Model the fold of this input.
Amino acid sequence: MYSHLLITYGELALKGLNRPSFEAKLIANIRSALPQIPKERIYRTRGRCFVHLEGEPLDKILPALSRVFGITSISPALAVEKDVAKIQEAAWQVTEERLKQGVPFTFKVETRRADKKFPITSPELSRAVAAAVIRKAAEKYPGLLTVDVHEPQLLVEVEVREEGAYIYGEKHSGPGGLPVGTSGRTLLMLSGGIDSPVAGWMMQKRGVELGAVHFHSYPLTSERSKQKVIELAQVLASWGGSLPLYLVHFTEIQKALHAKTPEKLRVILMRRMMMRLANRLAAQHKYQAIVTGESLGQVASQTLDSLHVVNCLSELPVLRPLIGMDKEEIVQRAEGIGTYELSVQPYEDCCTLFVPKHPVTRPTLGPLEEAEKALPVEDLLDEAIAKTEQLVITPENNMW
Ligand code: ATP
Ligand code: MG
Done:
């Protein structure tokens, strides 16, 4: 029955100066989330986006839109001419959808008049529409509908705009945040664990376009563990659009560390190699920052001292969106965004291969730099970069 989806985007309105480019990105992202709907049926006018429906199933469209950052709400709406009787009829249809369930509820009509030339004021129109709806409900569904202007269970909204009037009731919440692509590009260090996919998602939510880098130790780690990372990247792509995944061959570095460096420093030495490689890739592909899933104190390599001796190698800012979160909070978020089930699948990670029994928790630079003298650091980095494989990860097609 609905002819349109009316989409609101809150936070954008606050960002005065950048608003036009934010709106353009949002529309572009909505269009790519709904590839089955022709572009011209997805448009925006003054502070709202619209999808003109032609019978497409809402149960496919709503989940897709609920992953487009920047959207605050999505409402199925009826569009009619700016004529009081037509607006009343549409408001009735919207209300009747809920009356059909046979459960009593309270309602209220609220009008916004973006078109100030429309001759009737908002309060007058709200009253006229509410009166008509109440009258019909009393005839057809006696006893089910009452008015409550303070806390209505159903808010019927009427928007009178230049091009016509939109009437809607139910509201689905969007994910909030900012449209992906409005905050620059960052390179996510993506492991197969629980944390880093969540860190990537949090950056996407702030409008960042992601690339992801994964360090693997094939053939010491299996093909399946690489597949797991690809699947995690697919989930991220379903939120923020397609992303490049750089698969870096880390085996030779692992072997060299194992053969030539003291066991208790190895985790940090490995992290330092990863950070150097991430910076090289970022420079090559023009990312503005590195993102990790580190959370303070979670493991030995995530103490402030450990973070420092890795961080100091990075030319670019290293962003750690999970730094202050507890594991339970991260797990909850991972479940919500759809990465948890994948992350807990038991496939080995390159980091878990050579984990020492007693890693240092308070590393200092001196011994690390000393240990690295035993390694051909530059050659190892060059070789790993040269063997890097680049994939483009597209969202799993979850449309109809
Ligand atoms: P995660 O759950 O993200 O694996 P973790 O709690 O297991 O994190 P670590 O293994 O210490 O923590 O890793 C810290 C961060 O380093 C990860 O969040 C990730 O950003 C990065 N990282 C670790 N291993 C890899 C890898 N194999 N490839 C890419 N990045 C990695
Ligand atoms: Mg890990």
In short: The first helix runs from residue 10 to 14. DSSP finds 15 helices and 15 strands in the chain. The chain has a mean pLDDT of 93.
